Amino acid sequence: MSAKTVVEVKNLSHIYQPMGEVALKNVDLTIKEGEFVAIIGQNGSGKTTLIKHLNGLLKATKGEVVVGGKLITDQKVSDMAHYIGYVFQNPEHQIFAETVEEEVAFGPKNLGFPPEKIKAMVDKSLGSLGLSHHRETMPFMLGRGEMQRLAVASILSMDPQVLIIDEPTTGLDWHECVQVMDLVKELNERGHTIIMTTHNMSIVSLYAKRVVVLRLGEKILDGPTEEVFRETEILKTAFIKAPQIFRLMSKFPEIELDNYGIDHVAEKIYHYMKGAE
Hints:
Layout: E1 5-16, E2 21-32, E3 36-40, H1 47-53, E4 62-67, E5 70-71, H2 77-80, E6 84-87, H3 100-110, H4 115-128, H5 144-156, E7 162-166, H6 174-189, E8 193-197, H7 201-207, E9 210-215, E10 218-224, H8 225-230, H9 232-237, H10 244-249, H11 262-276
Parallel strand pairs: 3-8, 3-9, 6-7, 7-8
Antiparallel strand pairs: 1-2, 1-4, 4-5, 9-10
Helix pairs in contact: 3-4, 3-5, 4-5, 5-6
């Protein structure tokens, strides 16, 4: 049985007024339950504009967006929070409570859950994100990586099926990046659909299973990560540089990325080249 569709974008265009800036042009996109999708592109490519349509933060100039089988235009943003969650690029833009626990509890309270259910959801969310020991901490006393995890926890507490994460590793060092992304990967393995925007191609290659590439508001590539990153010439037109291993793989199309990972592929390429000598 094929996975059900959780997000469907049909012929979507968006023009920012009053300047008339065209941010999206006739974008089609279907995302299935359980996918881990990275949406990439340079600044101005339309990444953030696209994902803000997925939970109703922006309204389409043309086209339609269907989430959970329902048209976005037929739903309120607040009504969608239990199905699709949105984590902003800068966590300080969404954090406002005086303690970590209050921040995480806000969403379930707003959805009208009873106190015992709220407590259970908060406990689960804090535990999942490794923040249980920070219950009484003021959010802005946290480190950058912890604050990013708190932003995820505050959305996760509403138990959304789909999680949209805008630039989750901005401002983090590599250790913090891996911590945050390992948690996102774990959420995906538990069944959450992940939609992520990022400029970090290493993060994309390590975690995303599918990549969508935008250029000047248009979708130019969409497919499994390995296949997209092999399209080095097309990526150049979007000013995107694939990770080095994929640029090397593009020269050896007969060698496939397998379950052993990128290091194993590098070894295969080495032996392939030695055999050709």
